[in-house]
């Protein structure tokens, strides 16, 4: 990315959303993270620990990903403030879509793609500024040698995986589980768990009825988040 970022491309792309982290923040605005090496730190919401650097393109970041994030956060805001009653089919779909976004982002963090050569495409010899202009306009382009940049490919692959996953999980239903006895942790990736810690006291878990977690159930959930984490979990002391 060019100095000054005149085309307003997102450099640090959040894997855990600021809106989610904010629910775990102390009054001073810091969140507590427990690292896999045993250390504990209190850090800002915009810390690079919560981000990857330009792994997918701007079309994905500001387009379909933001739409999925906004729909999910609007639902969580309602649930976290005490909304009761069963989720609608559309709300189940929103949660599934967000879980798929979280899952596939992490998949490509662990297994990043390389530029791919397109058969029969020559490509263009573009300056860095020209590439950034095109990306800021959500345009796909092939560079010299007919190569599709890996950021563009990653954005497309995640979108396709979400679309396919939504079809496969169209009947997935999520339980709204409240934790009155123990704060829940949020991990940096879902691993094999189809559950999302939406707030320190709210867990969305697939294939579960709505209800309350016992202290033991909440403890076991936190242990699972820790075991599946790549680098850290976030906890709340409030």
Question: Overview of this structure, please?
Answer:
This protein is an alpha+beta fold and 238 residues long. The chain has one domain. It has helices at 18-22, 58-62, 64-80, 89-110, 128-136, 150-168, 215-228, and strands spanning 12-14, 31-35, 40-43, 51-53, 116-117, 147-148, 174-178, 186-187, 195-199, 202-206, 211-212, 232-235. A hairpin with a 2-residue loop joins strand 9 (195-199) and strand 10 (202-206).
Provide key terms for this protein.
238 residues, four-stranded antiparallel beta sheet, four-stranded mixed beta sheet, 7 helices, 12 strands, 38% helix
Computed Rg = 19 Å
Strand order of the largest sheet: 3-2-12-8
Separation, N- and C-terminal Cα atoms: 39 Å
Indicate the proportion of strand residues.
Answer: 15-25%
Mean pLDDT: 90
Biggest sheet character: 4 strands, antiparallel
Give the number of helices. 7
Quick structural overview:
38% of the residues lie in helices and 18% in strands. The chain has 238 residues and is α+β, with helices and mostly antiparallel strands.
Task: Indicate the topology.
Layout: E1 12-14, H1 18-22, E2 31-35, E3 40-43, E4 51-53, H2 58-62, H3 64-80, H4 89-110, E5 116-117, H5 128-136, E6 147-148, H6 150-168, E7 174-178, E8 186-187, E9 195-199, E10 202-206, E11 211-212, H7 215-228, E12 232-235
Helix pairs in contact: 3-4, 4-6
């Amino acid at each position: 990315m060019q100095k000054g970022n005149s085309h307003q491309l997102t450099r640090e792309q959040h894997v855990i959303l600021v809106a989610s982290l904010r629910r775990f923040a102390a009054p001073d605005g810091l969140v507590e993270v427990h690292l896999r090496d045993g250390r504990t730190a209190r850090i800002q919401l915009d810390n690079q620990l919560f981000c990857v650097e330009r792994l997918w393109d701007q079309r994905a970041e500001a387009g379909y990903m933001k739409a999925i994030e906004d729909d999910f956060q609007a639902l969580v805001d309602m649930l976290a403030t005490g909304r009761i009653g069963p989720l609608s089919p559309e709300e189940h779909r929103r949660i599934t879509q967000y879980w798929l976004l979280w899952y596939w982002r992490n998949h490509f963090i662990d297994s990043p793609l390389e530029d791919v050569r397109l058969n029969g495409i020559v490509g263009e010899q573009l300056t860095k500024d020209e590439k950034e202009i095109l990306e800021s306009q959500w345009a796909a382009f092939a560079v010299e040698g007919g190569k599709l940049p890996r950021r563009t490919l990653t954005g497309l692959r995640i979108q396709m995986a979400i679309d396919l996953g939504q079809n496969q999980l169209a009947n997935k239903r999520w339980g709204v589980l409240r934790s009155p006895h123990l704060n829940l942790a949020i991990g940096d990736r879902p691993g094999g768990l189809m559950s999302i810690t939406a707030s320190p006291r709210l867990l969305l878990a697939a294939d579960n009825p709505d209800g309350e977690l016992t202290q033991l159930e909440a403890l076991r959930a936190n242990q699972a988040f820790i075991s599946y984490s790549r680098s850290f979990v976030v906890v709340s002391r409030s």
